[in-house]
Structure formats: C-alpha cells, structure tokens
Amino acid sequence: MHDQSFFFQALVYLTAAVISVPIAKRLGFGSVLGYLVAGIIIGPFVLGLIGEEGEDVMHFAEFGVVMMLFLIGLELRPSLLWQMRRSIFGLGGLQLLVTTTLIGAIALAFRQTINEALAIGLILALSSTAMILQTLVERGQIKTSAGQASFSVLLMQDIAVIPILALLPLLASEIHGAGAAGQHDEAVRTFAGIAIEGWFKVGLILVVITGIVLVGRFLSRYIFRFIAQTGLREIFTATALLLIVAIAVVMDLVGLSPALGAFLAGVVLADNEYRHELEANIEPFKGLLLGLFFLAVGASIDFNLLLNQPGLIIALLVILIVVKFIVLFLLGRAFRLRGGQGMLFSLVLAQGGEFAFVLISYSMQNQVLSLEASGILLIVVALSMASTPLLLLLNEKLILPMMEDSTNEQVADVIDDGETPVIIAGFGRFGVVVGRLLIANGFTATVLDDNPDNIQVLRKFGFKVYYGDATRPGLLHAAGCDTAKALVIAVDDISKALKIADLAQRDYPHLELIGRAVSKQHAYEYLKRGITNYEHETFSASLHVGIKTLVKLGFNPYQAHRAAKIFRHHNNAIEKELFKHYEEDEKKYLSESMRFANELEDLLKSEMQQSIHAFDTAWDNTSRREEAAEAAAQNNSESAGKK
Amino acid sequence: METDKTKENRNRVLVYFVHPTPHKSRLNSAMLQSVEELKDVTVRKLYDLYPDFHIDIKLEQQLLMEHHVIVWQHPFYWYSAPPLLKEWIDLVLEHGFAFGHEGNVLKGKKVLTVTTTGGRQDAYREDGRNNFTMRQLLAPFEQTVNQCKMTYLPPFIVHGSLLIDEEHIRKAATDYRKIIVLLRDKIFSNNELQKTTYINNLLDLPI
Asked: Who among B52, B91, B101 is closest to A618 (CB)?
C-alpha cells in the first residue's frame, strides 16, 4: 500500500480533509480536531491508507508552522512586539521554568534519572503553536487578552527551543560520563568544545539576524517592487514562497528554529507596503500545510501502544494536561487574566506541541531517552493535542456559562494593528483626492493600488499604501475590510469596480460602499446593486467649467452657481428616471457604439422638454410686482371716482 | 390630559432643526432628542437635508400644508437664525403661496421659535448689554409669520447656553418636550398664549 503514486496520496489526504473538516466545524469542534480525526481514520490503525510515510509528511507539513509564524509576524510591528516584552519574557519565561520543574519532578517520581526527567520536563513544557494559533484565529480570539498572552508564551517557547536543542546532547554526555573519571574529563572537554562552538554559533546567529533585518528593511521594498512591475502574479507568489523557504534554510544552517526566523522576517516586513499582498499569497499555502500537519499527527498516533498500556498512558495524559493547566492558570492570575480569559488561556496552552515530536526523536538519537519512554511520550503528546479542541468546547459549553462576567472581556485589549476606518481601492488621480480630503480631516486610510510607481511616491506622504489587485478577495480581507467602516471604489476599470463591489457586498455586508462611476452604464450597475453613493468621475469638474463659461457669458457669479446647482439636482433626478429604462431594456445599452449617443439623446430630450429654470422662482418678485401694480391701479380708480 | 383627546384632534407638529454644527452642540441636540420620537411630530434637520442649500421648495410647501404647528429650532446667531433658515424662508414662503392676495395656504397655522442664546436673560433687556428684548430681536420672524396670516407664538428660549450644566440641559429638554406635547394636544388657551412673553412661563401654570 505504501508505494502509491503521489496522486493517490493527494487523493487520500484531500478527501479526508474535505469530508471531515466541514463536519467537525459544523459540530463546533473546529477544523483542527477535524483534521486530527481524519488523520486517525486514514492512518495505519483504521483504514491503513497511509503508513510510515506519514512521518515524512509531518516533517514536510511542519513548514506550515513556519508560514504561520511569518504571517503572525506580518501583523506585529516591532513597536507592538516591544510592548509585549513583559508577557513574552515574564509570563512565557515563568511558564517554561515552573512547568519544566514540576513535570521533571513528576518524571523523577516515575523513576526516571535526573537527566531524563529534565529532558522530559523541557520537552513537555512546550505547547503546540500550530494547534493553538489555528484554533484562536479560527475562533476570532487571537486579539483578546487571553489570545495575546497565549501568543507571548508561544513566542517564548519558540525562542527557548534553541537552548533546549543545545542542552539535550549535554544531558546525554553526562549519562556516559557518570562514574569513570577519564570519561568525565572527556565530558568536560566535550562541554568546552560545545561552548566554543556555541560562541561561534551565537556570532553566526547575530550575523544572520542582522542580515534579515537589513534586507527586510531596506532591500525588500525594491525587490518586491521590481517583481510587482512584471505584472505576473505567480512570480510574486513564487517570490513570497522563496523568501520563506530561504529563511528556513538559512535558519536551519545556523541551528535556529525556522519558525522563529520566519517570525522575525514577518515583523521586519510588517511596515512594508507589500505586506497585504504577501499575506494573501502565503495564506492558502499555510492553511493547506497546517491541515496536512494535523492529518499527519492524527495518523501518527500509535494505537497499539495505547492498547498495550492504556492505564499508564491515560494517567500520563491527564497528569500532563492538569499540571500545565494549573501552572498556566496561576500564572494567568498573576498576569491579570481573569475569569473566562484566564480559563481560555490555561486550557488552550495545556498540551504538548509539535516541537515535542522533534525533540523526542532528537533525544532518542542522543540517547537521552529510551525507545520505550519516547514512544509513550509521543502518544501522550499527540493525544494531548487532540484533547485541546474537546476541552475548549467543554469550557465554552459548560464552564464559562457557570462563571460570571465571563463574556464581558471577549473583545478587550485589542491590539491596534493599524487597520483604518476606510479603505480606498484604486489610488490614481481620482482616489488620491478622496484620500487627501480624508487625511486633511484626520482620518487614516488604507489604500490598495496595483501601480507600483504610485506606491513609492504616496508612501512618502503618510498614506498606508499597499500593492495589490483589490479584486482578489484575500486582499480585501487583508486590508481590514472586516473592521473598516467604508470602502471607496475608485478604480477606473468598470468591471474591476463592479467586481470589488460584488465581493464587498458578499463578504462584508456592513461596509458602506462609495463608488466612482466612469459612465452612465457604470452608474446604473451601481444602482442595480443598491449602491446609491456614487459620483460620476467628471461631472463636478465639467459643471464647474460650465459655471465659469456662464459667467463669461454675462451671468452673475451666484446666478451661474445656482444654475449649476439646480442642473446637478436635475441631472440626478433624470439619472434615476433613465435607470428605470435601463432596467427594463438592458440590451439597448449593450451596443457599445450606440451607448453614448443614446444617452446623450435621452438627456438632451428631457432637457428640452422642461426648462429646468422655469421652476426657479427664488427671489423672483414678478408676481409681487404684478400684484402691487394691480393694487395701485385699483387705488387710482378709487381716488378718481371720489373726485 | 391625553385621554379626552382623540388622535384626530391633535395638531401635527413640524419641527425644523436648523443647526450648522450639531456635532458641537450639547443643548440643542439634547432638546431635539427629547422631541424626536413624539407621535405626530415630524423633524426636519435642514442642514442634513440641504447641505448645499438646494432646498426642495415644492416638498417643503407640501409639508407645511400637512402640519398645524411649525417650529423653528435654532441657536441665536448674531441676533438671528443660521442662514439656512433665512434661505428657507426666502424660498419656501413664496408669494402666492404663503402671502399675497392668493397666498392663503398657511392661514391659521401657528409658528413657534425655539432658540438658545449664549448670553443670560438679563442681557436681553432694554437696559441690558444687548439693548433689546428677545421679542424685539425676534420681530422680523414675528412679522414674517404675520405676513403669512399665521400666529406667532411666544418663543421658547433657553438662555446662558455657554455655561449651562448637564442638569439645566436636561431641564431645557424636558420643558421643550412638554411645550411641544401641550401644543400638539391643544392644551393651551389662546388667552394664555397672548398674555405671556416667553412660552416657558406657561409651564409654571397649573394645567
């Protein structure tokens, strides 16, 4: 069964995902549990559709975690990261320290040596970045205070993986060194060697990080711009992927966690104007790879081992979750996570993580842990990951309703990632005026434009300008359409403008849409979609030229101004009228060459039929003069009669 | 009070809210809010409706015909109303509609000025800082109403808006609401209305 073609494997994985994930979501379990269960089903112990190669798949799919950290980095400006330092190092550091100590102590009680106990403690103190962030994002809780605290802890754990990887071999060498003095010397020498190598490594790491920061800050803009100017979308996608793969490779070379490197790169690029386009490009890859990763984790659960020692494994699973939960809960209190937020924080982090898989096999290779202990740990970690979605569901349905004021804080502590109340799609000569007016009145605007040359100039003037074609739904999302109040459609391409309108109406019904109409037909298409807030792109300017002309022909300035005002309102009324015809007889308008002539004819006809100024009797005293003359005449005849 | 009055017996009230900067107003906004939801009261925020001063004359005349009591609510700017109300008066109260031989459409309707002044009441006396009383300063409005064969009611005035506190804002809003309800339900007698200078005074009467 194991030498099937690539396509057969793809068929198995995709089918499993497509069937199980929607069901899991429908039942309220979230996608992660869906993937895990699907993995178990296609794994060796149920259907046997995938076997040992599942592990290779898992290593490959771990790349999804790297991408996820990159995307999270993109959302975090360095200044925001700096604000989080207390929770990263305080909360995260304490969590690692206390959990490692407690789990280590318990391992000692299970008759492990002190080195083994330390290794086990370190390995199990880590939680699952992939699992937690995917779950929190899916449930919209990443920006709550619990979400932010969880993220800080995960970040600290990612940082800690580096020293842990360095420490594990040392634990092994001490096992060998126990007893004989000669071997002890050797251990010391090895230690010294590692120390020197360590310093070299630290230097190397610093060089690499500096490189990432410098390239990201100063060079990437020009690279992305150069790529964007080719106008080939797939090359931009390729560049985005290349960026992340390159970072992963370099990080691996210097012994850093690729995920951490990708996160760093994300943070560096958070201010970059191509940020949203990068996000939209990487997002689908991340989603698929993470799904694959969870599938592989599900498939890797060794049910034979579970059936052999069910008591021990279940006991260890419970101990792991309870210990982690208690530590997190107490630390959460100390860091002011109360009520529902404290519960969420403690439950969501109470499991073993994907790093545990790596570290367990690494420890096995370094003979820190026995084969048997490793096997048991692996299954405990996998089961703990599977238990998290269930625990969260339990929390939501049973525990939270029992706690008071648990819901009040859901949206508190939102990190301002710079989203703006308005998004302007298209920033050429039309959109730019809209943007200037908004900025002049104290509003910030996110601007989407696919002309790389505009971006360079506008960034200098304080606009948040992002490169990208706004007709891609991913980009509208990335630009913050779910938090913005209004979307200005200022692109000059009619079909693009209407596509943006359709996407926005479908996905973000709360958004106020304001449109630039390029032609009458364009305006009708807006009206057809219920969008009444639109302006003809040239109408106001033409009207003002008309005013100036009237003045040159002898109108008083206010008279001309008022004439234009009346004309504008009259024109709007006519447009609504003509829209009815358009709806009735759309085909008439489809003949491209006839359209303008037809419209003109309709317009001029209605202008001829009713002189629009016939109604304007403002400040007109003709009738009063007539009445006064009448009265005077009557007076005259009366006084004449008296004579 | 309302029980012996059937709905058909009520006056329909048309409130014109004329304020160019409602977002900066505490008093006028609070007052407007207190009458906005009342039955048989139509509120027209002129500056929202006609930000470019392009008044729909026919529509405005139609509305005037459908109501019995017309309220002009505005802050008192330079001893007068904000310009859009003057524009409205100029354009809507047309010859042949509101005045003149044939202009009898508005005959018998009542008009109430509701205004707020920054200065205190004692400034609006012949020996006060402003040299004229409110009724003297409001004379152009009163005569406009007379010219249209309507009745100009004693105005509802809130003085001292510059330093007014929350409590007095609330009081002004409730008083305003009371007055509108009383006018709507035809509680005031013409005699009472003729005797007083500010309609505010009638609130103290036992009704």
From this structure: B91
Judged by DSSP in three states, B110 sits in strand
Work out the minimum CA distance from B55 to partner chain A, whole angstroms: 10
Q: To which H or E segment does residue A132 belong?
A: helix A129-138
Region A218-233: what's the mean pLDDT? 83
Task: Indicate whether A398 and A490 sit together in one domain.
Answer: no
Q: List the domain range (segments joined by +) for residue A460.
A: 422-615
* H or E stretch at A534: strand A534-536
**Beta-carbon count within 10 A of A62 CB:** 22
Beta carbons of B96 and A623 less than 8 Å apart: yes
Same-domain pairing of A324 and A438: no
SS3 state of residue A33: helix
Say how far apart CA B200 and CA B118 lie, in whole Å. Answer: 17
Q: Is B91 on the interface with A (CB under 8 A)?
A: yes
The more confident residue out of A484 and A158 is A484
Phi and psi torsions of B158, nearest 5°: -115, 115
For residue B61, give the nearest of B76, B44, B48, B47 by alpha carbon. Answer: B44
Same domain, yes or no: A121 and A163: yes
Contact B101 A627 (CB under 8 A): yes
Comparing CA positions, the residue from A470, A566, A416 lying closest to residue B53 is A566
Paired residues of A515 in beta bridges: A489, A534
Same domain, A512 and A575: yes
Contact A264, A72 (CB under 8 A): no
Say yes or no: A316 and A427 in one domain.
no
CB A67 within 8 A of CB A241: no
* Tokens at A303, concatenated: 């049910």
The alpha helices in A395-534, defined as continuous H runs, are 400-402, 431-440, 452-460, 473-478, 494-507, 520-528
Q: Supply the ipTM of this predicted assembly.
A: 0.74
CB spacing of B90 vs A621 below 8 angstroms: no
Number of domains in chain A: 2
Mind listing the pLDDT tens digit for each residue in A389-445? 888 888 877 777 776 544 433 332 233 345 678 999 988 889 888 988 888 887 878
Nearest to A624 among B53, B91, B100 (CB): B100
Query: Considering the domain boundaries, does residue A50 fall inside one?
Result: no
Domains of chain B: 7-204 (3.40.50.360)
Rounded to the nearest 10 degrees, what angle do helices A258-268 and A63-75 cross at? Answer: 30
Measured between CA atoms, how close is B83 to chain A, in angstroms? 15
Of A163, A173, A156, A171, residue with least CA distance to A201: A163
A-interface mutation test, from B88, B89, B95, B102, most A Cβ less than 10 A away: B95
